[in-house]
Amino acid sequence: MRIMKKYITVLFALGLLLATGCKDYLDVNHDPNYLEEIPDAKVLLPGAEVAIGNNLMGWDFGFGGGYWVQYWTQNYTASQFKTLCEYEEVEFATAYQDLTAGVLTDLKRIKTTTADLEDKGLYFVAEALSIFTWQLLTDVWGDIPYSEALKGDEGIFNPKFDEGQAIYQDLLNRVDELLKIDLENATLDEEYDFVYAGDLEEWVRFANSLKLKLMLRLSETDQYNNALTLAFVEANDFLETSAMISGDTWSDGVEGKRHPMREFQQGGANYLSTNVIACKSFIDYLKKNNDPRMATLFSPASGSLYEGAFFGDFDSKEDSNGNGKSDQEDAYSQARFTADMDLIIMSDWEVNFYIAEVYARAGNTANAKEYYEAGVKASLKQHGVTNDIITDGYAKWVNGTQEENIKQIAMQKWVAYANYQHIEAFFERNRLKYPSVNEIDIKKDRKTAYMNFPVGELTISVNGRAKLNGNLPQSPLYPPAVLTRNANALPQKANVGEKVWWNKKTGK
Description:
This protein is mostly helical. The protein has 19 helices and six strands. A two-stranded antiparallel sheet has the order 1-5. Strands 2-3 form a two-stranded antiparallel ribbon. Strands 4-6 form a two-stranded antiparallel sheet.
């Protein structure tokens, strides 16, 4: 979308306003990064949209999710992300700060300004993105400040922590109220909407899709009703075009205008090439099944060969593959991000997979197959590959039991999320428990494990196994500032193995 190029000027204009919002830099009563007066609430929208996308594939969620669902593992020769791979106490503080003090604060200001619904289009988008962001936050941390959050202007400086279950119920209520708004005569300036260029019909589909995600996230709890979810699916229209920041927006040669993963690489730190290598769990699954997306996700280790390393393994001196080199000396595939890569907020493939799962749970395998195939096709299209893996390849739908059908949907979702929606991949793996975890202790019988580890299953971190008693991470700790600055704060979590409330399915 070439029109996206000119949208960047809006961000620059906003940046100038922010930079000059305080004439006296010694005046401590004014935050120079806070725009106290805004000429029009719409100027806050593009920054909020980009910030959501940047955080989804940014420092905390992009790397954290990528490691914890075993797309990647830390390179043997570096150490930046060993904490993630060894299940240490990480808290994702940057994302929490950006999404609350930044995104949600700006969206609140938009909604407050448009609360009389004279500008219904802008209000609708701001509220939809607000619900999305709150869902993201509570899915990551569980119980968080919510009902009393962002109310410093009302004198509430120690907001209570709400239970995740109560937050979810309120979010469902909010999206229901949102969908009642009549948008027939509403408009939204396309230059201030980086996602759908002012197309409010697309935003209604987004809101419907968001509600579906909220409903389905409860699938393993006693609050889930598949009949009601199915009725909602059959009565509404859902996202057909991914909600995203187009890759045409980026300027790879300009600092601050790159895709976030490119920024981490091109900005001087070389985080991708230095610290990220393919995880054996994921790349072996792609290799065995000749998945055409492998070449867009990873670079070859050498020649045309793609190789991955065991997750969280940094000490072994073994020659597991018998090539005469220790595992630490072997070459491994690296994550590949192009300069014009789209930044996804919600994808058309995930929505198709959600709908497929609802039909699978209802026993309607014909419709489950239809939407499953639509999800796979959408993912292949996003990667720019045309190989047919549905008719004759490994992604061909096979009717099975309800659980078998859910598994094949979940496995394709795992692949589709790679490089685009890492934190959602983490949520969905925890919800459905696919890919499943294999109990093999890599450290005790390494060569056997190397040759016989079941393809399509996850392993427990070699160096983090004892940390969580052979379990995978479930949620990060609370950021220290969230606890130390709030008199109503909850006790800190014991470790990253504590589950959020909807994570109920049996298994690891």
